Amino acid sequence: MKALEVLLSYACNEACAFCSQELSWRKAEGLPFALVARELYAAAKDGFESVCFTGGEPTLRKDLPQMLALARKLGFKYLRVQTNGLKFAEPGYAADLRAAGATNLRVSIHGDAALHDRLVKVPGAWAKAWAGAEAARTAGLGVGVNYVLNGENDAALPAFCADLLARGLNDLVVIHPLYEGDLLAHEARMSLPPARAAAAARAAAAAYKKAGAEGLRLLNLPPCAAPELTHLMLAWSPHSLLVVDAAGRPVDLYMASHDDRLHAGPCGSCTLQDECLGFKRSWLKRFPDAGGFAPVAAAPAAPRSGTRILRRGGGAFEAGRHELARAVAPVAGQAGGRPALAVERMSVTLDADAGRVSESRVVWEEALAHA
Ligand code: SF4
C-alpha cells in the first residue's frame, strides 16, 4: 500500500526532553488546508491508500477532521493520526475522528505516570494519553504506541511492555533517540549508552516472548546492537524504508534517516555491510567506538520487519518503477514573517528492475492566502 505522510506543523502542546525537533520550529507556519487537500488529491490519483497526519501535534489543528473526511472521500483506506494523546482524552474527540474517517491512532507514551509526565513536561499527560488511547479503542480505532527510549526510561521498558500487553495492546515501536533537536538541550539526562539501549531492546523482546505476544518493533537501532532481534528492526537498511510491514500493516516512512548514516568500526567485517545503512553520524560522534558492538557474523535468517515488498521477485511489485511513499511538510526552521511558506516533499521510489530504492526531495515556496 502506497503511503502518504503529512506533517501538518511543528506546533505541540508537550515539550518532550528527547524531542528530535527544535522548539524554535514551532513558530513556523503549518501547511494550509488547501495545500493538504491538493496533496491528498494528487496522492489518491497516484494510487496512494494510506495517509498519516503527524506533526508536531496534529490534533492542535481544528481542521484535522475535515482533512480526514476528505482523505476518506478520496478513497484512502488506512488513515492514521500520530499523537501525544492529550486531545483524545476529551470526551467525544476520538469518536469524532473515527466518524470523520480515521482508522488508526499512534500514541506516544514513554514510561509510568511520573516518568512520562516528567519527560514530556506536562502534569497529568500520562493519564490523558492512556485515556485517549482507551477512548480511541472504544471508538473503533486501531491503537499503537511509540516509546522513545532515553537515559531516564530504559530500565522502565520491560514493565511498560507488561502493562501495555495487560491492557490488551501489543503494537509497540521502541524508538532509539536521535541526538538532534531539543534533545541536545537535555543531552546529559537523555543520552543512552549503547549497551543500555541494547539491553532495553532485549528486555522488551523478553517481555513479549514471556507473554507469547508479537507486535514489538525497534526503530533506529542497527542489527549489531542485538543481532538476534534484527527481524524486529526498522529503518536499518534501505529495504526497511517501507510502507507496509511483513504482516501487511503500514508503517512510518522514516525517510529522513538515510543522509546521515555512516559505516564505521565493526562495519568493515560485518556480513550486513552491503544491506545496512550504518550508524547515525550524530550517534557515532558520541560513541566513537560504535558502542563496542561486534560485527554481525552471520546474516539473521528470520525475515526482517517490513522487507517483504522490496525484495526483487518478492511478489508485491511487478518490474518497473513504483513510487511507494511520499511525505509533505513545512520546511523546519523556516523564518517567521516570510510572505510564503516553504514546503518540502520527499518520495521513495522502488526501481524493481534494478532492485533499488531511491529518495527524492523537492522544496518549493507556497503563497499564503493570509500573507
Ligand atoms: S553494517 Fe555496521 S552498523 Fe550495520 S549491523 Fe553491521 S556493524 Fe552494525
Describe the structure.
The chain is globular. The protein has nine helices and 13 strands. Mean pLDDT is 86; it is low at 242-257 and 305-315. It has 371 residues and is an alpha/beta fold. It has helices at residues 33-45, 64-73, 93-100, 113-120, 125-139, 157-166, 187-190, 194-211, 281-286, and strands at 3-7, 50-54, 78-83, 104-108, 142-148, 172-175, 216-219, 233-234, 261-262, 279-280, 321-330, 340-351, 356-367. The chain has one domain (2-367): Alpha-Beta Barrel (TIM Barrel). The strands form two sheets. An eleven-stranded mixed beta sheet has the order 8-7-6-5-4-3-2-1-11-12-13. The chain has a two-stranded antiparallel ribbon with strand order 9-10. The two termini are 37 Å apart. The protein binds iron/sulfur cluster.
Outline the secondary-structure elements:
Blueprint: E1 3-7, H1 33-45, E2 50-54, H2 64-73, E3 78-83, H3 93-100, E4 104-108, H4 113-120, H5 125-139, E5 142-148, H6 157-166, E6 172-175, H7 187-190, H8 194-211, E7 216-219, E8 233-234, E9 261-262, E10 279-280, H9 281-286, E11 321-330, E12 340-351, E13 356-367
Parallel strand pairs: 1-2, 1-11, 2-3, 3-4, 4-5, 5-6, 6-7, 7-8
Antiparallel strand pairs: 9-10, 11-12, 12-13
The structure holds iron/sulfur cluster.
